[in-house]
Amino acid sequence: MKNFKISNKLIGEDEPCFIIAEAGVNHNGDIYIAKKLIDVAADVGADAVKFQTFKADKLVLPDADKAEYQTKNTGSQDTQYQMLKKLELTESNFEELKAYAETKNIIFLSTPFDNESVDFLDSLGVPLFKIGSGDLTNLPLLQHIAKKNKPVILSTGMSTLGEIEDALRILTNKGLRDIIILHCITSYPAKADEANLKVIRTLKSCFKLPVGLSDHTLGINVSFAARVLGACVIEKHFTLDKKLPGPDHGASLDPEELRALVNGMREIESALGDGIKRPTKEEENITKFVRKKIVACTDIPRGTIIEEVMVMLKRVGTEEGIEPKYFYSVLGKKTLQDININSPIKWTMIE
């Protein structure tokens, strides 16, 4: 599977997990809150912070119903259109946020929901395009994104393998090859017992592309498990305060949980190692204290043929002595010197 570079970060199976702190619309339409979200993402060590770029007029009908989770979190007074209208940011806002993210040394990303937003983000210089699960089957949008010839992260919530295959066909038709697939369960929050993380392996096997997880479950354990299964990208919603009004705050991580996610991910990666089975330096130091050697369990005079009843295996606390794997090779050998009881037997002591 091909590794590729996003800004100054390498993404791939053997690279550090690329962690996207998903601010989404948790800025509530306020650029001050948006900047605070960037501050948090940068401070905890996330690789990228991501927003959503849309115009409510181009995204949803005026009388479209809200999703159940949106109604639960924002009430039933507003329509989906009215809710999203309040969550819009202007192009100048995004220009300011990208510049601000650069001062914080964190990659700025945003998900576009229409061609105009794609063009704007491209002109803004985003290093990749993130396609949300809701647009996986929006083949015209995918075709427009593919023309930009930038890396793509494709979320696959609500989809089948066939739909993913169709999306990839559109994206790769013009030669685009730098694509990451994100397994995703589009529920807010998603239930851990429905996360179906083994799909990560399925996607890798089917499409031979890097695979990650857009994690909508509560907490961070599912993200950790995904990394162990080979996810090279983790995307996770976060907020300044879960009690803020808005559709996504309740299912998001707070700043300290986001920090725990990043720190835990780096610890897991350190623990995963390189797959080569060999003793660690600490193990090499402790070997002489816990591995046994062949020792005399009685006084053995010089010229004696060693029998099994004369020797046993004990820890000796040094590197001296013959290892247990040679136990039967020692039997039948003649001693070249007197060997005292509890003395490690050395090759120089026998012929």
From TrEMBL:
InterPro entries: AFP_Neu5c_C_sf (IPR036732), Aldolase_TIM (IPR013785), NeuB/NeuA (IPR020007), PseI-like (IPR051690), PseI/NeuA/B-like_N (IPR013132), SAF (IPR013974), SAF_AFP_Neu5Ac (IPR006190), SAF_PseI/NeuA/NeuB (IPR057736). Gene3D superfamilies: Aldolase class I (3.20.20.70), Antifreeze-like/N-acetylneuraminic acid synthase C-terminal domain (3.90.1210.10). Coiled coil: none annotated. GO terms for molecular function: N-acetylneuraminate synthase activity; N-acylneuraminate-9-phosphate synthase activity. Keywords: Transferase. Its EC number is 2.5.1.56. Residues 293-351 form the AFP-like domain. Pfam families: NeuB, SAF. This is N-acetylneuraminate synthase. GO terms for biological process: carbohydrate biosynthetic process. NCBIfam families: NeuB_NnaB. Transmembrane segments: none annotated.
